[in-house]
Amino acid sequence: MSQAVADAVAVRYGRILLKISGEALLGQRAYGVDPEMCVFIAQQVREVHALGVQVAVVVGGGNIFRGLAASAKGMDRATGDYIGMLATVMNGLALQDALEKSGVPTRVMSAIAMNEVCEPYIRRRAVRHLEKGRVIILVAGTGNPYFTTDTAAALRAVEIGAEVLLKATKVDGVYDSDPVKNPKAVRHERLEYQQVLSDRLQVIDSTAVTLCMENALPIVVFDMNQPGHIKTAALGGRIGTVIDNGERDGR
What we know:
It contains nine helices and eleven strands. By secondary structure, the chain is an alpha/beta fold. The mean pLDDT is 91.
């Protein structure tokens, strides 16, 4: 049996939602989008897509604009959040370009109507794109201010029937303290939703965690900067930190 066939047989999740922060697109830059980083992400997504996994992506906009930070400096919070939503659209289009150049059919779907550059987000249409083998990139958050893109990712994952929420970060999981400040910090292999909430672990927005908990949607927090990690997570391999309801199923 070839490795490709073996991987296809071993796929754990048939439909995934991948949450990528806007900062992940910075690459080596201080601001904006690094085309090389987009290509790197596209190659990883292509690996998963080639296994027959249906992939949805939610991307943040922090590499361009952060509404909360602008609010802290005096800007109206809703206005700042809307600007941040527009930033996610720019990031989504950049990712779409990289994915399609790598041979992966992709659709960008926005929670805010802008028909000249992308499709409106309609749940049934999004599911149909996935069923036809297209990657969908979901942008503009929930379309409402005061909600993070983590919450948007959890909401969309539940809506489209994703089997797992993959939270791609710059660290290899959730630690009991900041691993940058504390070299003895211990990484959790598994956490329950309630522990993340009660300990106020900042790895993912509490609203997103609550939504996942209420719908029994597992979250995998992992380092996306290593090649093959998205594929490993989709295969259900031991990587990063799993956040779920505490039931052990052999992973």
